[in-house]
Amino acid sequence: MNQRQIPALAALFLIASLVAAGLLLSQAVQERPAFGPTVTPRPTLIPASPLPSPTPPPTATPDPAGGAAYIIATDTHLIESVREALAAAGMADEAVVLEDDPRAHFSLREVDPGSYLVTAVAGEPPLLRLDQPPVPWEIDAPLITPLPGTPDEAARYLVALLLLRDGQVTQSREQVRALRIEAARRPGEVPSTAFALYDFTLARLAAAEGELTTALELYSQSIRRSPDLAASIVGRGNVYFRLGDANAALAAYEQAVGLGVETPLLDFNQAVFGVATLQAVEESLGETPAVLTLRAYINRDELATALPDLQAAAQMAPNLPDALHNLAFAYDQLERPQDSARVYADLIVLRPDDPQLYIARGLALRRAGELAEAYDVFGEAADLAPENAQPLLEQAEIRLEQNDLREAQRLAEEVLILDPEAGRAYAVIGDVLLAGEAYREASVAYDDAIRLGVETAEVYANRAWSRHNIRAMVGAVRDYRQAIVLGAGNPLLFYRMGFALYDLGQYADALEAATGAVNGDLEEGDTYALLAICLDANFLRDEAERAYQEAIRRDEVFADPDALVDRPLWTIGSVSRARTILLRLDEDG
To answer: 44, 166, 313, 448: which could join 292 in a potential S-S bond, CB 3.0 to 4.6 Å?
Structure first.
């Protein structure tokens, strides 16, 4: 973040400066006279272990210590308690920074004997993903509410917050639960405020793992214990946010404003619902990747409009995977597969061991028609995740497109070893068998594909053709119709279905199918010959004769009915009808 943004974010948590605690804490103590006289703090910086958090935005000051989350403590006994708590959590100390360094994320101060204030700078707002439900900007520390207890308990609570920000949810939860159990063993000694803070953090941890019902219950329990605990009120609003209950979320945010929570976080969360203006967020936070992405999210229904913001966010934060994911998603939706493949290549540089990125890039390359390169990329994905059948399946389909039938079948069979329920693999095998005119076996393979959920127009059309060739006409017609319902617009389907219906004696439906083939621009001799026999079967003899004359004009083979016997789809019945029409034409002259 830049120097203009740091005060704005610090104000969010009512900390004008992490080291300028005198005014803040004296005010907090005046509001809580039961805690006694204020202890003048003597700030000393100690660092905690580095956090493997996402790469900081490019506007942030580079951290020579590798992104460590530093703590400000006030007294020697607190420093020692924090060091012991860090050591117990396996978090080693690192380099010391200047007292006013904005990278100091956490603060621990004694506001009264036995009362400790734990605060945290908000950091950056979340980078929303356009392909996922939005997430709110969360509060990780209890803001202005002190924690009653001992230095050891305060230090352990602070380390739990460190673990939470570090993404170590299980370890953080164990730490807080242990503190809560110890407090419960001293009935009457521990104020309800301590339990409210512990419940707040447990709720935040539950929300971090997607346990939203549990989080809602814990936030509500925390608020019952301490009705003015702003962090829990905002947290509960954020749960409603994620549940899609805009009214409840906005009501919580409005209540939090009256409890001293500053506007940047609330403006950001409200802007997702279209309540706070984007201008207010921009004024608070500036032009950051998160703000650009928020603007793109608001315009997500018009991705062409949102694209410049996504491009700018990715350019500002080329090392943030979510920024690149959004750009790749937009390119995918805008049908720009080559650009999408390029962005996925950048993502692979950041996460070279993530097979899903290789799969995504391979899919983009397939859509772009770069089959050879896509095949190689899927091979890399298969090497990274040999238990994943998808890369092999994609390779099988590519080989099928390239007419390498033997290799396509081999790969599809490998897929079925890994995943016997892979319906698309059966579809590949069906296509290979169909190409080899093994119609009965192909039909069985398509049966398996459809049974396993591959209900596409192509699969139904291919099974229809397989059934047609083994004279299973009722099933063939049913499949032709299903393929058309699913969007297959190929007039060849109407042509084939017309012959199948004719052979079944369903002449009116056969005429309708033949007309569909002609209207679909399948204007060949075969099509007009089919139309002619269907018209004749429906007693439209004049129209039948004109259609058959058109068939002869396009292909003279239809002037010799004996030559039709060996043509695909023609049967004794249809050849006999064609012969009858020819005889009438000869009689007429």
So the answer is: 313
